[in-house]
Amino acid sequence: MEGVFGDGTRGSVCGSPASRRANGGTPQRVRDLPQALSCTKENYAFTVFETLFKERGLPANIRSDNGVPFASAHALFNLSRLAVWWLRLGIGIERIKPGHPQQNGRHERMHLTLKKETTKPAGLNFLQQQARFDDFIEIFHNERPHEALDMKCPAEVYQPSTRTYQGLPDIDYPFHDKTIVVTHCGRICLGRKKINFSTVFAGQAVGIKEVHDDIWLVSFMDDAITRFTVTILSPGTRLQSSLANWTRRAGSCSIA
User: Fold this and answer.
1) Is 180 exposed, middle or buried (0-12, 13-18, 19+ CB in 10 A)?
2) Residue 169 forms part of a structural domain
3) pTM of the prediction?
4) I need a surface site. Which of 49, 74, 139, 142 has the fewest CB within 10 A?
5) Short-list 13, 106, 21, CA closest to 51
6) Is 234 part of any domain?
7) How far apart are the C-alpha atoms of 180 and 218, rounded to whole Å?
8) pLDDT averaged over 10-residue windows placed end to end, the chain, 256 residues
9) What pLDDT does 222 receive?
């Protein structure tokens, strides 16, 4: 599944293992829900993605560029609140390198076709623009054959994900000293200490473990896909630079 959200904002949702083509093992990609939005604010994107997940299920991974609302240039690991929500849902994150749109070439090609056929000229208002998007998707899914699909239409081969959307799962840290919820202003409170963490994690539970005198390990989630750790040295409220398990591989960034 790939989606276009707002003018110039784009991301692609990769198919789950259950939605791969039988003959090649390549993820099926059914582009869905082009949505006319007034801006790229995260709150609008949350609504669009939640609707998509409820209808189509959860993808295994989401590949995107490094722009808003998919990433945040100044946040921890360049994550955004939207990306943190994806991680909580068990969705892997893939990021293309900045300035390398060819790493998401199939989506970029679709986006070019979408813009040519639905925005030149653009609708006079949001309702007209959404109608153009809806007409495009109807043709794209059901009438236009695709060479990559052996000249079949996407609707002929698409299968929804087997992972249904059921909201956020519970999260706990049984092997840590305590579980702390990050404050609205992005802080971790350890007694009287207030450590500036990241506002993109506001309201999220993190695990805290003292690994040495006044040295604390902070973990978010606890599996091979989404686990990372942060070391806090006391006294003081600064995060140290031994942060990242954020790795770059195969031309994209992933949580290691």
Assistant:
1) buried
2) no
3) 0.73
4) 74
5) 13
6) yes
7) 10
8) 34 34 36 62 84 90 88 86 93 86 82 88 87 90 89 90 91 88 90 84 89 77 49 50 34 34
9) 65
Contact 3, 11 (CB under 8 A): yes
User: Does residue 136 fall inside a structural domain?
Assistant: yes
69 near 82, Cβ under 8 Å?
A: yes
Between CA 254 and CA 140 the distance in angstroms is 30
Distance CA 223, CA 85 (A): 15
Overall domain count for the chain: 2
Residue 171 forms part of a structural domain: no
Give every CB contact of residue 148 below 8 A, 6+ residues apart in sequence: 26, 106
Q: Give the separation between CA 64 and CA 10, rounded to whole angstroms.
A: 7
Rounded Cα–Cα distance for residues 113 and 16 (Å)? 25
Residue 91 lies in domain = 2-157
Tokens matching residue 85: 């929500």
Contact predicate 77/228, CB 8 Å: yes
In terms of Cα–Cα distance, which of 149, 154, 150, 159 is closest to 19? 159
- pLDDT number for residue 219: 83
pLDDT value for 7: 34
Residue with tokens 């909580």: 88
8 by Cβ neighbours in 10 Å (0-12 / 13-18 / 19+) ranks as exposed
**In the chain, where do the E strands start and end?**
2-4, 10-14, 61-64, 92-96, 178-181, 187-190, 193-196, 205-212, 215-220, 228-233, 246-249, 252-255
Rounded (10°) angle between helices 42-56 and 81-88: 20
Kindly report whether the peptide bond that precedes residue 69 is cis, defined as omega within 30 degrees of 0.
Answer: yes
